[in-house]
């Protein structure tokens, strides 16, 4: 049985060229980049080349990139780093209600340090209303964070509109672009953001890699104090193989991203229309058009998402119920709650995130999904009640 | 220690939130890109810089003009002399 992987929001396979680029830095080029002899100097140069590759992918300058261990760390550094550096100006921050846990819990941590946090609601598609944002900004607001694309429902926010409101009011704007960088073209100048987080997991780079873009005038309190690494903004000897992997994956993505978008969109349309045709009582979550090209998310009535994922797994299909981190908690997704999905319907959440998938794979998924849903519903007293 | 008020400067280097030894590395790099006679303003919240930067200037043949303190940080002024 062939494996069909449709959970690219959780992790992407590391590309062959990326692995090849990384190998020498486990082996012959093992030195510490801070060392002053040739090996150290050469490795430091290699790190700077990778910084330029990551910067190019998002339209930034190389000295505006800080390497991190994940998108989560980049989000933590953005939220806590800006808040702790700017607390003399004010202690109010604003985040959307559908942020990833690394943003959400960073904000909750700041609440324990006497910061005030406003959780901005979203509409039924997961979109933040720019007018609402303008209304909740106060003189003591120092930071707004709204994610670029949501990993669970795929919705892409109007970031440039939101960031321009913040710019006018002199408030720093951060976006978590972990779900978007690698899937759609992202340019920090077009988005007008002050900070942006990205992760290697969406890019075909190894896990344990990520980066934060920051404008040079932004003050950031480091989370890891140490030496001179990352311009004194993140201590600790650099993860050289990981950085090389992230750099190589960024270089490849920068050259491929536009073509990939069209191909993924076709697959998504095929999957969405097929599911709506084959399965009754199914709701597409997120925005119908303003969404990631390879992302299709649904709530299916009268089934348990976890059970469905397990049945698809038996057929060699890997998908997810929501975010990889949150699904194990068996708690209704806060994202689905925020967009107004009723709790019983939210239990039937299933998310397919495609990348290098084929039309044949989508057809196979449609066939197996329809039969799994039918099987689960035949066992469901709720479904029997509804259809009686 | 020489205190200054309203010292004009040609460029500003913001090192607030960044620790030792960045305050001894970045001013030198920035001065390399500036012209002789120009003044660099260094912003820092690191107390050690108050001793280290005048000493660094003496060692590297640059002129330490003085410092100003405000609520936010220290401002140290270096004139490029070579």
Overview of this protein structure:
- The complex is a heterodimer of chains A (388) and B (82).
- Chain A is globular and about 75 Å long.
- Chain A has helices spanning 16-22, 38-57, 71-86, 101-111, 130-136, 159-168, 188-191, 240-278, 305-314, 324-327, 334-338, 343-346, 359-378, 381-387, and strands spanning 4-5, 65-68, 92-96, 116-120, 141-145, 172-176, 195-199, 210-214, 282-284, 295-300, 317-318, 349-353.
- Chain A has 14 helices and twelve strands.
- Helix content of chain A is 42%, strand content 13%.
- In chain A, the strands form three sheets. Chain A has a seven-stranded mixed β-sheet with strand order 2-8-7-6-5-3-4, sandwiched between helices. Chain A has a three-stranded antiparallel β-sheet with strand order 9-10-12. In chain A, strands 1-11 form a two-stranded parallel sheet.
- Chain A folds into two domains: 4-10 and 257-387, Aspartate Aminotransferase, domain 1 (Alpha-Beta Complex); 16-253, Type I PLP-dependent aspartate aminotransferase-like (Major domain) (Aspartate Aminotransferase, domain 2, 3-Layer(aba) Sandwich).
- Chain A has 388 residues and is of the alpha/beta class.
- Chain B is α+β, with helices and mostly antiparallel strands.
- Chain B has one domain (11-79): 2-Layer Sandwich (Translation Initiation Factor IF3), CATH 3.30.110.
- Chain B has helices spanning 22-32, 49-60; strands at residues 11-14, 39-44, 63-69, 74-79.
- Chain B has a four-stranded mixed β-sheet, covered by helices on one side.
- The longest helix of chain B has 12 residues, at 49-60.
- The mean pLDDT of chain B is 93.
Task: From the structure above, extract its key features.
heterodimer, A: alpha/beta, Aspartate Aminotransferase, domain 1, Aspartate Aminotransferase, domain 2, 3-stranded antiparallel β-sheet, 12 strands, B: 82 residues, alpha+beta, 4-stranded mixed β-sheet, 2 helices
């Amino acid at each position: 049985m062939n494996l069909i992987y449709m959970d690219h929001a959780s992790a992407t396979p590391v590309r062959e060229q990326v692995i090849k680029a990384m190998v020498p830095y486990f082996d012959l080029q093992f030195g510490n980049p801070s060392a002053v002899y040739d090996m150290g100097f050469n490795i430091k140069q290699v790190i700077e080349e990778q910084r330029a590759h990551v910067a190019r992918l998002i339209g930034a300058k190389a000295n505006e990139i800080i390497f991190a261990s994940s998108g989560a760390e980049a989000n933590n550094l953005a939220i806590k780093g800006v808040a702790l550096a700017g607390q003399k100006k004010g202690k109010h921050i604003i985040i959307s209600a559908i942020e990833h846990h690394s943003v959400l819990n960073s904000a909750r941590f700041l609440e324990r340090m006497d910061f005030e946090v406003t959780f901005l609601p979203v509409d039924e598609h997961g979109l933040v209303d720019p007018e609402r944002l303008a209304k909740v900004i106060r003189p003591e607001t120092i930071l707004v964070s709204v994610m670029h694309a949501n990993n669970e429902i795929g919705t892409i926010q109007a970031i440039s509109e939101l960031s321009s409101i913040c710019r006018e009011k002199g408030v720093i704007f951060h976006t978590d672009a972990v779900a978007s960088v690698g899937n759609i073209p992202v340019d920090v100048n077009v988005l007008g953001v002050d900070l942006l987080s990205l992760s290697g997991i969406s890019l075909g780079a190894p896990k344990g890699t990520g980066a934060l873009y920051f404008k040079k005038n932004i003050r950031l309190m480091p989370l890891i104090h140490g030496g001179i690494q990352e311009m004194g903004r993140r201590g600790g000897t650099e993860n050289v193989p990981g950085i090389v992997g992230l750099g190589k994956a960024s270089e490849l993505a920068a050259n491929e991203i536009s073509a990939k978008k069209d191909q993924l969109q076709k697959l998504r349309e095929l999957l969405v229309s097929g599911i709506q045709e084959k399965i009754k009582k199914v709701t597409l979550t997120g925005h119908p058009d303003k969404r990631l090209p390879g992302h299709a998310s649904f709530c299916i009535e009268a089934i348990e998402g976890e059970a469905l994922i397990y049945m698809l797994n038996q057929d060699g299909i890997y998908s997810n119920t929501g975010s990889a981190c949150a699904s194990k908690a068996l708690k209704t997704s806060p994202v689905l709650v925020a967009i107004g999905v009723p709790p019983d319907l939210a239990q039937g959440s299933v998310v397919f995130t495609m990348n290098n998938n084929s039309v044949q794979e989508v057809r196979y998924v449609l066939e197996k999904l329809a039969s799994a849903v039918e099987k689960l519903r035949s066992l469901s007293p709720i479904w029997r009640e509804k259809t009686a | 220690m020489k205190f200054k008020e309203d010292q004009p400067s040609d460029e500003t280097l913001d090192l607030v939130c960044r620790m030792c030894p960045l305050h001894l590395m970045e001013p030198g790099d920035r001065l390399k890109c500036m012209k002789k006679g120009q003044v660099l303003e260094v912003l820092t919240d690191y107390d050690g810089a108050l001793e280290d930067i005048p000493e660094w200037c003496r060692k590297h043949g640059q002129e330490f003009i003085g410092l100003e303190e405000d609520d936010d940080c220290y401002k140290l002024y270096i004139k490029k002399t070579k």
